[in-house]
Amino acid sequence: MNAETQQRILDAVDAGFEAQLATTRDFVAIPSTRGAEGPCQDMIGDLLRARGYEVDDWHINVDDLKDLRGFGPIEHDFSKARTVVGTYRPNIEAGKSLILQGHCDVVPAGPLELWDTPPFSPVIKDGKMFGRGACDMKSGTIGALYALDAIKAAGLKPTARIHFQSVIEEESTGVGALSTLQRGYRADACFIPEPTGGKMVRSQVGVIWFRLRVKGHPTHVAFAGSGSNAIMAAYHLVHALQKLEIEWNERAKADRHFKTLNHPINFNPGIIKGGDWASSVPAWCDVDCRIAILPGWSVADHQKEIMACVAAASRNHRFLANNPPEVEWSGFLSEGYELTDSAAPEAAFGTAFNKVYGGAVEDLVFTALTDTRFYGLNYGIPSLCFGASGGEMHGFNEYVELESLKKTTRAMALFIAEWCGVEKA
């Protein structure tokens, strides 16, 4: 691809950027928390149909997925869960095929009064767009769509098959991405524009979600010594798991990528529910937890370590020793992923990156996870993850930096053209 063609594509991205931001605002304005992603999927389907893509919109059947590698258990109402894929097919396939994927699910906003502006009323100020999902990762998804638009606006068309995939459940199980593979979608490479601060994810953690279900013995609080407080017993187990976190971080020092980080394994008790009455010693407590594992670490083996840690801590507790807690697997059962066997797509992206940013793309060792793992681990599809800069993901006042978003869109457009090939429309 010559410099003139590259510049036409870049100019087209710039010309379409205001429209891209308007579409992004509309997308961010949809409160697509877990189980409520339908309106976002409707919007994506409409955007793809308006552009002439072949659209596949289906309800996800968990029974089709439960035996696949990387499946995580679903606990909520999944009857409305859908995946949407738009496919572009060239008349004659000459380039390399590509999956472009984004997730439309977002995490809860939390107490609304702690946001400076309403989380689902996106606001642009100071060169940033604020709103839940603006950074993670709705701006990246719309950016990929407008990168494709820019190629068309430049008077070109790709010469390879492209699947544009909008998935759900990235934030809790990953079964949305898994459903596309079960459906049969494949390509020579995958590209996911998660917000990575302009770096390429080289290695990422896996994640295990689990729930501690702790029993107690209720009494009137006036006689608290004769009962057993399930909430306090749960804290006993959390403290034991914090020690397991320390052990796993020591183990991480042997990993060739994660040894560069001070504390890559993070354990988080994220939800706690317990008790029925302030003047009653609580008879129950549930704690939903997340902990990371590294690439190459067995999910099953580390589940056993979690179980052993909880069992050992219970034996050292007056009540739990005879009333052991339950451990339930409540979401992610995900392996870590290291980007390998990816020289060809990385070279194509490197050309695009150098044109837009100058120099070579930096690697990112990522202490969160992305859907890239399914493509690389399950099917050997090299899966690149690169995106814009932003902040406060999963926090208050989440934002994406607009100049960074424009650069990411420019790099994506050039990468698509370089990898898939283009010809005059």
Automatic annotation (TrEMBL):
GO molecular function: hydrolase activity; metal ion binding
Organism: Bradyrhizobium rifense
Domain Peptidase M20 dimerisation: 204-316
NCBIfam families per record: DapE-ArgE, PRK06837.1
Entry cofactors: Co(2+); Zn(2+)
Family note: Belongs to the peptidase M20A family.
Pfam families, alphabetized: M20_dimer, Peptidase_M20
Keywords in alphabetical order: Cobalt, Hydrolase, Metal-binding, Zinc
This protein's name: ArgE/DapE family deacylase
